Structure formats: structure tokens, C-alpha cells
Amino acid sequence: MTRPYLKNLDHETLADISFELRNVVIDLFERPEKNSENSSGPPSSDNPYDKGEPKDSNPENADDADKEDRKPDPDKRNPGRQPGSQGFWRSETPIPEQIVPHYPEQCPCCNKQSDIPEGISPYMGYYVFELEKTDSGIRIFCSLHHYYIIMCDCGHEVKSRPGEGYVSQTEGCRKDLKLTGYVMTGRCRQLS
Fold first, then answer.
1. Is the pTM of this model over 0.85?
2. DSSP three-state, residue 14
């Protein structure tokens, strides 16, 4: 809506638009004061930085001695994992059915093809889980991808890295998503 557009509107339509804009401004003004205790929003919509002590509305009643005597209620717990509780991850290390080595192909400095030395060990690896269709249903196939570093004759250290694909750019998102080979499920395959 531009200024000339608003000038061309009749009085009744302009009054309706003004009333709607007033409601939007009131809603935006009151929104910071809303939380899960005074609105129908869930606790997850609360500001995570405002989790401190509730503020006393009457400053005359806020005595320093009362604040020291007040102790948190042991029955009231914060949502989520409690401090000191044990976290958990995979219960067992996955057993790969296949190990896929990724060696660097050529040096980016001198363009020499990389020679793979004997007994080289990987500097990084990750598991890939894929669903495979079988005659009786589906199964989970686990493979381990290893990435290696090789020292070139020119003195440059050449690293193999997971492949990268397209970047998904969505307006309003804080971070763009990039398709890479370094994932937990599925695998990036280059189509030929």
C-alpha cells in the first residue's frame, strides 16, 4: 500500500484499514508481555532468556531478607533434561558391512596424481545408514566411509573430503541447507 493508493480510497475503506492496522499495532505491542502463563501458547513459545525468578509487582514487599529465605520448590522442575542426569547416545557401536575408502585424487597445487602409500590410516570417518528393499521387506545397510590425508611430493598436504551438492536457500531461514556426503542417513550419489 502506497500513499497515492491510500489517498484514492473512500472514507469507509480507509477507516476499516486504519482499524485493522490499530489491532496489529496493539497485538505487536502486547506480544512481548505474553507467555505460556498468561496466554494459550505452549511453554516452548516462552522466551528462553526470561526463565529467572518471577518479578515482584510490589517493590515495597521485596525485602532482601525475604529473598534470601526463599528457596526453590524441589517438586517444581524445569522442563527438559535435568542438570546432572545421564545423557545417552547409541547403545552400541554400529558394525559396518562395507568400508568405503576415499583417497585424494590429485594435488591442487601441482596437479600431480596422488600415490597411495602403504599402511595409511584415515583422519576422519562416518557411518552411513541406508534402507535396502529385500524380498521379505526392508533392512538397514551400514557402511563406514574413511577419508585420508596424503603428503604430496611438492610438500602440500592433500585431504579427501565428503562431496558437496546444492545449497537450499529459503527466504526467512537463518541458515542455508547444503547437501553434503557427510550425513547420517542416505548418501549423495553422483549421477552419470
1. no
2. helix
